[in-house]
């Protein structure tokens, strides 16, 4: 993507940047001149990612569970001390597991809501209060999922991501006059480390359920994120961009 140095020396935070989609987002920002902080819960994973990313530009990591408000404030303090500002937040960290609603324990439901809805809100509010509202400038991109027709088989994450989809619209308006833009990217099925954790029988042949007959790549998602964070999208806010090969419009994601 030609971005004409749009991200030169911009400070970018990518949650869950140690693997998969988040790793590609971090790499693309670095390649386009940004300084990037990646976060996650697993230090070894983050260190390995830094080793692979450091040739592309200035990148550091912080351990931060997005469900832990104290850890999020510590992360904000780290960025404030190191850079004095934050330009772009990518809320990519998240995850869930397949389960029919009837089999979900209350704790299983809560863990997925916490991970994908509450964690995203905690991170967004903390970074807005610490940086964006004071700066009167900021750009937020939330990674959600294909929830266009609901998410049968993963109703917990469907509910959580629909919450983030709507939060994106609300905050786009609440913060529009403060120079803050917020959009979302909804990936379809992406060939990534995350997908490797799903049962084989669910994933086998899944590309056939995608109209374009292939899975997306982590770079496909990263390109959409960079577009929304770039000046090319300066008049776009409160929007969700589907990166799904048309899947939201056609058939089932997986057989129940
Ligand atoms: C095939 C189509 C794919 C569709 C496209 C989507 C793809 C992706 O999003 S891939 C990328 C995402 N990566 C992941 O999803 C990572 C894998 N998931 C997780 O790491 C976890 O599921 C978690 C983060 C969502 C939950 O972690 P945590 O809160 O630490 O969970 P606990 O181990 O404490 O368990 C809490 C609660 O949840 C139940 N549970 C956890 N995993 C499963 C499971 N695989 N199946 C059923 N139930 C599960 C667990 O049993 C606990 O409940 P209780 O037993 O009642 O206490
Ligand atoms: N791959 C796909 O087909 C799709 C993916 N998505 C979403 O895209 C995002 C990236 O997924 P993908 O790259 O595929 O999968 P990964 O599992 O590789 O990435 C998820 C990342 O999030 C981090 N993470 C998860 N929970 C937390 C938490 N509580 N606090 C901090 N970090 C956390 C993980 O790091 P660590 O383990 O170090 O905490 C990991 O780096 C996720 O939100 C996912 O649900 C949505 C639709 C489809």
TrEMBL record:
Pathway in which the depicted protein is active: Lipid metabolism
Reactions it catalyzes: (2E)-octenoyl-CoA + NADPH + H(+) = octanoyl-CoA + NADP(+); (2E)-decenoyl-CoA + NADPH + H(+) = decanoyl-CoA + NADP(+); a (2E)-enoyl-CoA + NADPH + H(+) = a 2,3-saturated acyl-CoA + NADP(+); (2E)-tetradecenoyl-CoA + NADPH + H(+) = tetradecanoyl-CoA + NADP(+)
Family: Belongs to the short-chain dehydrogenases/reductases (SDR) family.
Uppermost EC category: oxidoreductase
Domain of life: Bacteria
GO molecular function, one term: trans-2-enoyl-CoA reductase (NADPH) activity
Subunit-structure text: Interacts with PEX5, probably required to target it into peroxisomes.
EC numbers, comma separated: 1.3.1.38
Pfam families referenced in this protein's UniProt entry, alphabetically: adh_short_C2
Functional description taken from the UniProt entry: Participates in chain elongation of fatty acids. Catalyzes the reduction of trans-2-enoyl-CoAs of varying chain lengths from 6:1 to 16:1, having maximum activity with 10:1 CoA. Has no 2,4-dienoyl-CoA reductase activity.
BP term (GO), one: fatty acid biosynthetic process
Phylogenetic placement of the source organism: Bacteria, Pseudomonadati, Bacteroidota, Flavobacteriia, Flavobacteriales
Protein name, per record: Peroxisomal trans-2-enoyl-CoA reductase
Annotated Gene3D superfamilies: NAD(P)-binding Rossmann-like Domain
Main location: other
Protein location: Peroxisome
Keywords: Fatty acid biosynthesis, Fatty acid metabolism, Lipid biosynthesis, Lipid metabolism, NADP, Oxidoreductase, Peroxisome, Phosphoprotein
């Amino acid at each position: 993507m030609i971005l004409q140095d749009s991200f030169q020396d911009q400070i970018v935070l990518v949650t869950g940047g140690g693997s998969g989609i988040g790793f590609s987002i971090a790499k693309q920002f670095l390649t386009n001149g940004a300084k990037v902080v990646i976060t996650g819960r697993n230090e070894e994973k983050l260190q390995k990612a830094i080793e692979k990313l450091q040739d592309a530009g200035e990148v550091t990591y912080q351990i931060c569970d997005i469900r832990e408000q104290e850890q999020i404030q510590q992360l904000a303090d780290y960025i404030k001390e190191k850079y004095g500002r934050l330009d772009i937040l990518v809320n990519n960290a998240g995850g869930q597991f397949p389960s029919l609603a009837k089999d979900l324990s209350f704790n299983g439901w809560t863990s997925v809501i916490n991970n994908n809805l509450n964690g995203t809100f905690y991170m967004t509010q903390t970074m807005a209060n610490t940086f964006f509202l004071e700066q009167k400038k900021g750009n937020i991109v939330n990674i959600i999922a294909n929830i266009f027709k609901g998410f049968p088989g993963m109703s917990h994450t469907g509910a959580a991501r629909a919450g983030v989809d709507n939060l994106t619209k609300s905050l786009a308006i609440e913060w529009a006059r403060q120079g803050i833009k917020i959009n979302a990217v909804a990936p379809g099925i992406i060939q990534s480390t995350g997908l490797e954790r799903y049962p084989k029988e669910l994933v086998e042949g899944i590309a056939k359920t995608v109209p374009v007959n292939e899975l997306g790549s982590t770079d496909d998602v990263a390109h959409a994120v960079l577009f929304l964070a770039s000046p090319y999208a300066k008049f776009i806010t409160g929007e969700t961009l589907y990166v799904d090969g048309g899947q939201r419009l056609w058939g089932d994601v997986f057989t129940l």
